[in-house]
Design goal:
heterodimer; A: 300 residues; alpha/beta; Purple Acid Phosphatase, chain A, domain 2; 6-stranded mixed sheet; B: 239 residues; 5'-nucleotidase,  domain 2; 5-stranded mixed sheet
Chain lengths: 300, 239
């Protein structure tokens, strides 16, 4: 057969396809439009274990750990790769916290199969010792990249980031926390230093890229945005630090009508999402490959 | 029921092993309530429900007792609201009723410290824990009159905090009992704020008298005594 330029491209394309077929089989088989990965997320659940009461002014009967568990389970049954994340302030807000000192929240989040959580200011409401006692019941990981835990026992249980592999995704998850000064009594975080969240994020991003992560998520408790535009926030983070794919936020209890997209000068897009508070919503992000574009890139 | 649903297409190249590919992010937010018809039969619902039951029983037995009734919905909302007023009034009345002071006594709390609003009806012990979950204690602060301007600056920026025995009008704190002869006033607040919490730095370094009285206990006792809450919805803040 005469080898033409056109044939060569066809053969090379088929060969490439065959060589990489096993690795990509999951993406090519059945469920064309099914996401390869589902990222579920909460923030500021504030010990709201029961649904909000029937006479609640804004969200009557909404939320509750049982409904959340059912929804998460539905995603797990429908999809192979599910990541469950929390952006902090899982403590404080109902008598469950006063009575059981955070132990119940840790047990329930573990039962629900959370993978990673970052820390909010209220997660220091029972101090370092209180947190350490409660976290013994957690089977998930804690991340924060801008607190220097120094010699405190929290240094052993809170890491700057975690890397999780789900299918073809190598996901870097790191955490950023708000400056605790003025928000939390000093004695509750004695020995923990506050660092610039943007510098900390840039340093972590470098490590996650060196580790070849192909999806980078920031669990942020900085807050969505402030009137004082210079105050560290999710929007400012997305504008100042390039390379984050997804900022899952908390602290400002922001109910968003949709995610916010920020494009850096280098063209990188960062998406910001936050789901209010009290566990009345669960964020669900479906990550899917665009098959057509993918194949074109291989042939190239 | 409102359903929140949207799709967004993202184009961004990522490195996967040795191959570049373009992920698409579909982002949606769901109300948890939407799954309720399904949840009752799910295995996970039963499992978590069984796990949770003893904790719920303990909580209900300890926190469901009725404390008082509110004739109207109680809201925490800047610049001024009935629950913010009620809390500040409760602090003042618990400390000053039937007593005479040579200097004005006002109350300044923080809106962020009042953590819940309530519908009309009965209020339980648990509701007061939701309102004031923190173990904040009452502090008396002796504040020089010359520092009142710092509070005014703060209130102007914050947009409203719970206050009593005073009002904030046109950027100025109006204290009816303040005379030109007064060099100091007393401010009733929480230990959190007295130590500069919520950036109330004007309290730092001042003479203060700490107490072991929990703000939450003040609210509970006041509510018990009133039985039906005495509410004042009159705004106490205008810029």
């Amino acid at each position: 057969m005469k080898i033409t330029r056109r044939n060569l491209f066809q053969k090379f394309g088929l060969l490439s396809f065959g060589l990489f077929l096993p690795k990509w089989l999951g993406a090519f088989s059945s469920q064309k439009n099914s996401p390869e990965l589902v990222i579920l997320h909460t923030n500021d659940t504030h010990s709201q274990i029961d649904p909000l009461p029937a006479n609640h002014g804004k969200y009557p009967n909404q939320g509750g750990i049982l409904a959340r568990a059912s929804l998460i389970e539905q995603y797990r049954e429908a999809h192979q790769h599910v990541l469950l994340l929390d952006a902090g302030d899982f403590f404080q807000g109902t008598p469950y916290f006063n009575r059981f000192h955070g132990v119940l929240e840790m047990k329930l989040m573990s039962e629900l199969g959370y993978d990673v959580a970052t820390l909010g200011n209220h997660d220091f409401d029972i101090g370092i010792d209180g947190f350490m006692n409660a976290q013994q019941h957690a089977t998930f990981k804690f991340v924060n990249a801008n607190y220097n835990f120094g010699q405190t026992p929290m240094a052993a249980v809170v890491q700057p980031y975690q890397i999780i592999e789900k299918g073809r995704y190598k996901i870097g998850v790191f955490g950023l926390g708000i400056d605790l000064n003025g928000l939390v009594p000093q004695s509750n975080f004695e020995g923990i230093g506050m660092q610039d969240p943007f510098e900390s994020a840039a340093a972590v991003l470098k490590k996650l890229k060196q580790a070849h992560c192909n999806l980078i998520i920031c669990l942020s408790h900085l807050g969505y945005q402030y009137e004082d535009k210079t105050k560290p926030s999710d929007v400012l983070l997305a504008q100042k630090v390039s390379g984050i794919d997804l900022i899952l936020g908390g602290h400002t209890h922001t109910f968003m009508d949709g995610p916010t997209k920020v494009i850096q000068p280098d063209g990188h897009s960062t998406w910001i999402h936050q789901v209010g508070w009290a566990g009345v919503r669960l964020g669900a992000i479906e990550v899917t490959e665009k098959k057509f574009n993918f194949l074109q890139k291989i042939i190239n | 029921m409102t359903k929140y649903f949207w799709y967004i297409i993202v184009g961004a190249s990522h490195m996967a092993c040795s191959a570049r590919f373009t992920p698409t992010l579909h982002i949606q937010a769901l109300t948890v309530q939407e799954v309720k018809p399904v949840q009752d039969t799910s295995m996970v619902h039963a499992h978590i429900g069984t796990f949770l039951a003893p904790y719920q029983d303990t909580l209900h037995s300890e926190f469901d007792a009725r404390i008082a009734t509110t004739p109207q919905a109680l809201t925490v909302s800047r610049p001024s609201s009935n629950l913010m007023n009620w809390c500040a009034d409760a602090v003042i009345s618990s400390q000053t009723a039937n007593k005479r002071f040579s200097e004005p006594v006002i109350c300044l709390l923080n809106t962020g410290g009042l953590r819940s609003s309530f519908g009309a009806g009965n209020l339980t012990l648990g509701d007061f824990y939701k309102l004031m979950p923190f173990d904040n204690r009452l502090v008396w602060i002796h504040l020089p009159v010359s520092k009142i301007s710092e509070i005014e600056k703060y209130l102007l920026k914050s947009g409203g905090e719970p206050i009593a025995n005073c009002s904030f009008e046109n950027g100025k704190l109006q204290i009816p009992s303040l005379l030109s002869s007064h060099a100091y006033i007393w401010i009733l607040t929480s230990d959190f704020l007295a130590n500069g919490g919520d950036q109330m730095n004007f309290f730092l370094g001042l003479e203060k008298q700490e107490t072991n009285i929990l703000l939450r206990d003040i609210f509970i006792e006041t509510a018990k005594n009133q039985d039906v809450l005495v509410l004042d919805a009159q705004p106490r803040y205008s810029k």
